[in-house]
TrEMBL record:
Belongs to the bacterial solute-binding protein 1 family. Residues 25-47 are annotated as: Disordered. PANTHER family: ARABINOSE-BINDING PROTEIN-RELATED, OSMOPROTECTIVE COMPOUNDS-BINDING PROTEIN GGTB. This is Extracellular solute-binding protein. Keywords: Signal, Transport. Residues 1-20 form the signal peptide. PROSITE patterns: PROKAR_LIPOPROTEIN. Pfam families: SBP_bac_1 (PF01547). It comes from Paenibacillus motobuensis. Residues 25-42 have a biased composition (Polar residues).
Length: 459
């Protein structure tokens, strides 16, 4: 077994342990290139088989918060099935963390992923593509006229070829209770010090300043990643994998120490290590917490009466402010989550036609704008900001559009830039910080040791 696959299998077992604690519709009908685009087929053309066949789409659109995304997927699936004779698409819904860190890794190690699957672009897609496990989409994008339509295919590009497609874009920032701010005479902070002053006032009022759930480490790491990017600069994270920068840089330590300070000051609810992702949103919905660091995708929860109740229309959004007023906003902005396709699809013309049809139906302006309007997911396809603003006049979405327009220094999330083992190490580390088991310096020394080992292995 190749080294990378051995790594995948080992990561699969590690993650399991941690988790336990298109072408046009004509493509499907043509076996003769000369018959494409016409219904007047030659008499000697072979009849396309309409025998039943099946493909599986692994998705992560489960739970109430993702119901709009699932509805879009359902409609694309129906369109695709209607266009491809004999096709049945089986939907396999799995929790995002379980899919990424356990199930998909295990399937990839065995060389048997589903035909279509939810996948992170960087670093996951490159690792799987390197082993020949993902379908090269480069010629398909050319065929469908999609090659230059995406805002950023970088996370899904390996060795000059595209191995996956982002379903949307996102930024990270702070959702807040506008009604509470108005009642208390609070305004959107311009500096990190002002943000802390607001948090102190909220805590003194008997409320939780920041909603947080830390059972899954990626959630609190949104806060930590933003903090060290302000203290050390967002470019520092790009150098960890190359060895140009170190996790033990004094300014990275300051960022982690600031997160620890917020924990010690009681800015988060006690017991956060036991809370699931949905619990964090509920802390805001119930009025228990006033602010929440999260991805822009969370807006759909606060715009849905079935989930947010009377809070609809009372939630705003702003970027985490800089250290000094007037400094550029440093914001996590990426399009690193989407769909990949098994390389085995290329061995079956009917499955390949089904995949092309799925891509053709999913990545359209109509579906991207629908995702923006219904679910608040920023488009993966290139679109003018003004067009996005006119698609949704919702006040919360307008806050998010404003935040996008104000970005001074965008950066990808750290886990798109480092190896999987390093991601695991920092995830364990931030949970130890939250639990009071370790200090920032020692925690980052442990992360650097994992980074050094991964770099030395040439991963």
């Amino acid at each position: 077994m190749k080294k990378s696959l051995t790594l995948l299998l080992s990561l699969f077992f590690v993650a399991s342990a941690l988790l336990a604690g298109c072408g046009s519709s004509n493509d499907k009908n043509t076996t003769d290139k000369g018959s494409a685009g016409t219904n007047n087929k030659p008499a000697n053309e072979a009849k396309v088989s309409d025998e039943p066949f099946e493909i599986t789409i692994r998705h992560t659109q489960i739970g109430e918060a993702k119901k709009f995304r699932l509805a879009i997927l359902d409609d694309v699936v129906k369109k695709t099935q209607d266009a491809v004779p004999g096709l049945t698409i089986k939907l396999d819904g799995v929790d995002s963390e379980v899919n990424r860190k356990e199930k998909l890794r295990g399937e990839m190690a065995a060389g048997k992923p589903p035909e279509v699957f939810d996948v992170f672009g960087s670093p996951d897609a490159a690792l799987y593509a390197k082993e020949g496990l993902m379908l090269d989409l480069t010629p398909i994008l050319d065929e469908l006229g999609l090659k230059d339509k995406f805002s950023d295919l970088g996370p899904f590009t390996y060795d000059g070829k595209v191995y996956g497609l982002p379903i949307g874009g996102s930024i990270e920032g702070i959702f807040y209770n506008k009604e509470y701010f108005e009642q208390k005479g609070l305004t959107v902070p311009k500096t990190l010090d002002e943000l802390e002053a607001i948090a102190d006032k909220i805590k003194a009022d008997g409320k939780i300043p920041f909603a947080q759930s830390s059972k899954d480490a990626w959630i609190p790491l949104m806060t930590t990643n933003n903090l060290w990017s302000y203290y050390a600069g967002p470019e520092v994270t790009y150098g960890f994998k190359t060895g140009e920068t170190k996790w033990t840089d004094e300014n990275v330590v300051k960022g982690v120490a600031k997160h620890q300070e917020w924990v010690q000051k009681g800015y988060f609810k006690k017991g956060e290590l036991g809370f699931e992702y949905a619990d964090m949103r509920n802390q805001v919905i119930t009025g228990e917490a006033i602010m929440m660091m999260d991805g822009s995708w969370a807006n759909s929860v606060f715009r849905d009466p079935a989930q947010a109740g009377d809070l609809v229309g009372k939630i705003g959004y702003f970027s985490m402010p800089p250290l000094k007023e007037g400094d550029p906003f440093v914001v996590m902005q990426d399009s690193n989550n989407g769909y990949g396709f098994s390389s085995s699809v290329s061995e079956d013309p009917r499955k390949l036609a089904a995949v092309k049809e799925f891509i053709k139906n999913m990545w359209t302006d109509e579906m991207q704008l629908r995702g923006l309007k219904e679910d608040g997911v920023l488009p993966a396809l290139k679109m003018d900001l003004e067009q996005m603003k006119t698609t949704s006049d919702d006040p919360l979405m307008q806050d998010i559009f404003k935040a996008v327009s104000e970005i001074g220094k965008p950066f990808p999330a750290f886990d798109a830039l480092v190896q999987a083992e390093v991601n695991t190490a920092i995830g364990m580390g931030i949970q130890q910080i939250i639990g009071g088991e370790i200090d920032p310096q020692k925690m980052l020394e442990n992360v650097q040791a994992a980074q050094d080992a991964a770099n030395a292995a040439g991963e």
